[in-house]
Amino acid sequence: MENRFNLIDEPWIAVVDVGLVSLTDIFSQPELRALGGNPVEKIALTKLLLAIAQAAATPTDDSDWQQMGWQGMAHCCLQYLAKWHDRFYLYGEKPFLQMPAIQAAECKSLGVLSPEVSTGNTTVLTESQQQQQLTDADKALAIVMQMGFGLGGKKTDNSVVLTPGYRSKQNDKGKPGSGKTGVSVGHMGLLHSFWQGNSIVQSIWLNLFTAEDITQLAMYPTLGTAPWERMPTGEDDDIARSLKASLLGRLISMGKFCLLAEDGIHYSDGISHAGYLEGKTDPSVSVDFSGKKPKALWVNPGKRPWRELTSLLQFIEQDSPRGYETRQLSLPLKRITHHAEQFALWSGGLRVSSNAGEQYASGTDDYVQSEIWLSSDLINHTFLEYLKYEMTQLDAVQKQLWGAVVRYFRQLSDIDKSATGKAQPFVAKQAEKATTIFWQLCERQAQTLINACLNSGEDHTARLQLRKIFARYAGQVFDQLCPADSARQLDAWALARPNFSQYLTLD
User: Fold this and answer.
1) Which residue in 197, 251, 420, 447 is deepest, having the highest Cβ count within 10 Å?
2) How far apart are the first and last CA of the chain?
3) Domain region containing 474
4) Phi, psi of 53 (to 5 degrees)
């Protein structure tokens, strides 16, 4: 088989404002600002770029990281890619991150891999849900996505087992089981977070772990070897086992074994990694291990990531009982604040639903992402205190708005004012609607709110200004959903309209 389409030289990675670039471009063009594509594609590509950088240039400690700088890291990565050039062909003897032995599995169309393409008996609603002709660049991305973000379900052909005697791909009856969920998705879609700089290459450098950090990662105490350097032969051989215990093996988790075919893809479950309930996560996932049962932060389209910021940054309060831990954020933060004045926290993912073992995106499931810029000299305990306080107050405004909308509609419905009558579902729906619109409006000011909390030590006026804006939003939403056109409506409106005077006095 001839080697063709090398990911080091060919353009396949989407970059904002530029279009497709190659791996060489990423590490040799510092003007490339940020990755494009949907949030899951961004996470999968960030993990690949981090794996390349960790394999090529893991610094020993903070000072080594600083001395190397993003320029030194980029140089090491280019050298590394040149050394392993023959392992990055999408097609050939050793196709990139693929298992030729899996050819025995059924060949599926590539559309089955994508959560938003209709396959099988799902109704097609829009043009974009139909399967499109995929280019080599699309296929390369699909392979990288399958490593950690393969969705679970019956489409996976688990009748092919490569490690003799390996039973984890069978169900209780000894038949081939449904495909397992990708370890980076989990049951409902895990939220991932990374630091972000002014360019792609700087962002990779900011997220790079030092050898010292890795010794503190109890889950993956060794760096390990990247799978393209040494591919496993099956689901549970020695190489697969060592991948499970190493950081590189988690960044490129090989959850599906794939092989591209002329007109589709052969794929089956690959290496089965432990999930957060077993105490292991991707470093970019947030889990609270302090309770009896670990809790993860899931993607929630109704609650955008900027509202989770206090949970994501919980680790800044050193003395607090452990809340959510995100190692990708906490380990590098100290050195980042010393060497970058401005940086952002990016969080995102895809919410998925599961039904009878099938995983898909449906109904209200959606991609979410947010990017919040922070300044290094101001990220501290005080900032977090202010942010927590303002978010609590804002939640209280939302609850007030909810209660006001419910009161208005109860007032109008003569059925029952005590909440046991039939008007309830409709009323609740209106209040839900009010909440959604309110948070959408607030999101416009998310960055301004962060900035006001960052600078709050010396000046409170910015926070007060913001409160006025948020209270005005709540009033607008109430007026929008609760009309005052007739005399009865006007009475209900006047009785129920929320008063935010307390919120508008800063204590």
Assistant:
1) 251
2) 72
3) 381-496
4) -65, -40
